[in-house]
Amino acid sequence: MPPTPAQTERERAGAPFLTQGHALAREDYALACAQLSKAVLRRVKARSLRAARRACIRQLRSEVKGLDGGRVRGLASTRVLKVRVTQRRARVTVQTTLYGVKPRATGTTVREGGRWKIAKPLSGAHVGRSLVERIPSEGMVPTLRAGDTILVDQDAYRKTPPAIGDIVVFHPPAGAETNECAKRPPKGQACASADRHKSKQLFVKRIVAGPGDRMSISDGHVIRNGALAPEAFIQPCDGQAEGCDFPRAFTVSAGRYYMLGDNRGASDDSRYWGPVAAASIIGRVRRVGP
């Protein structure tokens, strides 16, 4: 039986997402960016749509830089799971094979000049309620490196509280962008007082102390409740890095968790802007792949 006009329309609405996935797999960034609507491209700070498309191409090339050909070609497995068409817009759910897991993502396409184009890029790939994110910096080396892809389980703490040793994604306290402590600590003590407001940014760090724990830091190593914490996974300080010694102990306040990067000599973390509220933790991280 041939497809109905409505079925054909739904398939066409999903086509831009497939086309973009296959274009990325072929490293054809021009074709991938051509799928974005004018409305999306106008958000790019550029003098013209042509300049915006060039900026889009540079961004896509940067995002896949460092991935080997096999991993990039894995994007070609993207397929449409669901399309809901309403007037000139369509809500599309796609699934992509990504490092052994199959994240789903939802986005919007619009009809423009008789063709479907992507109006809103895929807005948060997920597996169930898990987000797929990219590591932006070297603060978690050697455990995670810049460009690594991680899976963030948003349901990890629904029934159990966060645990020491967990790597988590969270909103840091306001002031984290400029490494400002809400209350200047005494000499020799790391920041113990955080701003009650949270930043909109997302950080990735490891929990090293919880509510009520008394801690200090010696040469980048955590001293928790009077005992040296077992931390074979960290990149130790090299003796010249700042922020590696805070011998004066303090107690982590109720409802908050102390976060440090594994790269102790090169991480902006709770040492500078204080502990993180439990409500600001988005989920627990498990590594998916480089």
Keyword list:
alpha+beta, four-stranded antiparallel beta sheet, eight-stranded antiparallel beta sheet, 290 residues, 6 helices, 16 strands, single chain
How do you describe this structure in short?
By secondary structure, the chain is of the alpha+beta class. The chain is 19% helix and 30% strand.
Descriptive report:
The protein is an alpha+beta fold. The longest helix is centred in the first third of the chain and has 21 residues. It starts with a helix and ends with a strand.
Instruction: Give the N-terminus to C-terminus distance in angstroms.
Output: 45 Å
Runs with pLDDT <50, length 5+? none
Describe the largest sheet.
8 strands, antiparallel
Count every beta strand, where a strand is a DSSP E run of 2 or more residues: 16
Which band does the percent of strand residues land in?
25-35%
Shape: elongated
* Individual helix count: 6
Helical content band: 10-25%
Instruction: Determine the structural class based on helices, strands and strand pairing.
Output: alpha+beta
Order of helix and strand elements from N to C terminus: HHHHHEEEEEEEEEEEEEEHEE
Rg from Cα: 23 Å
Give the mean pLDDT: 84
Lateral arrangement of strands in the main beta sheet: 5-6-7-16-8-9-14-15
Topology:
Elements: H1 5-25, H2 29-34, H3 38-41, H4 49-64, H5 69-73, E1 79-86, E2 89-95, E3 104-112, E4 115-120, E5 126-127, E6 130-134, E7 149-153, E8 167-170, E9 203-209, E10 214-218, E11 221-224, E12 227-228, E13 246-251, E14 256-260, H6 270-273, E15 276-277, E16 281-289
Antiparallel strand pairs: 1-2, 2-3, 3-4, 5-6, 6-7, 7-16, 8-9, 8-16, 9-14, 10-11, 10-13, 11-12, 14-15
